[in-house]
Amino acid sequence: MALNVVGIVCALASEARHLGPTVRLQVPSLASLADGTLVAVTGMGGSAAAAGSRALIEAGATALASWGMAGGLDPTLDAGAILLPTEVIGSERQSFNTAPAWRDRLSCAVAAFAPVRGGRLLTSARAIGSVADKAELFRATGAAAVDMESAAVGEVAARHQLPFIAVRVVVDSATDVLPRAVTAAADNEGHLQIWRLIGALALAPNELAPLIRLARRYRAANRSLAAIARTGSLAPYAVSPAPDARLP
Prior knowledge:
Blueprint: E1 6-10, H1 13-16, E2 23-24, E3 30-32, E4 38-41, H2 46-58, E5 63-72, E6 82-83, E7 87-89, E8 95-97, H3 100-111, E9 116-117, E10 120-123, H4 131-141, E11 145-147, H5 150-159, E12 164-172, H6 180-185, H7 194-203, H8 208-229
Parallel strand pairs: 1-4, 1-5, 5-12, 6-9, 7-10, 10-11
Antiparallel strand pairs: 2-3, 3-4, 5-11, 6-12, 7-8
Helix pairs in contact: 2-5
């Protein structure tokens, strides 16, 4: 039987840590979980996610997952809401369907710990920070949330005819402003540089309150990623369970 290896793309190391202990591989930015699942921490953005996806395939991945946080567009979703979308839409409105059986099996497992939403996930080339912009995207696309990587992962998976899912939790809700200080303080790999953050807040001190509020939302999102991780690795849900030979 062919070996099934799941490759997981994470923009940030803080998102990947919920997946469990990893062993670094010789390929830069790639690591392996105990069950052989491959993990790529790529930094933010579609180009980085696509490069990480290709590296995972070259390392042996036969299925791809996009994992991490997203901004809420649907006003009914609070921080920490779990989204396993049926469809991912790119910034140019290209569409990538997620693998139904994989998504459904994982959704059933996660639902034992927390509610799960389906629907659409939008991928944007930039961070969506204002409440007005979020509302406009929700009206235009019907997407429940927005991230910056999943469509790129879906495109690579489609090109190689591999199963694909996205696992996202909401960090900033549709009614939350994403402070510009946060995006200004992030480096190319998605790490937050404190000196940049201090400098950005010095220029816009009115963003301190939204930043404190975002910190609370971030804790809720982390709890949700941890809840998903409690179901175990994504790998067992990627393939149908083998029939029990002992059953008649």
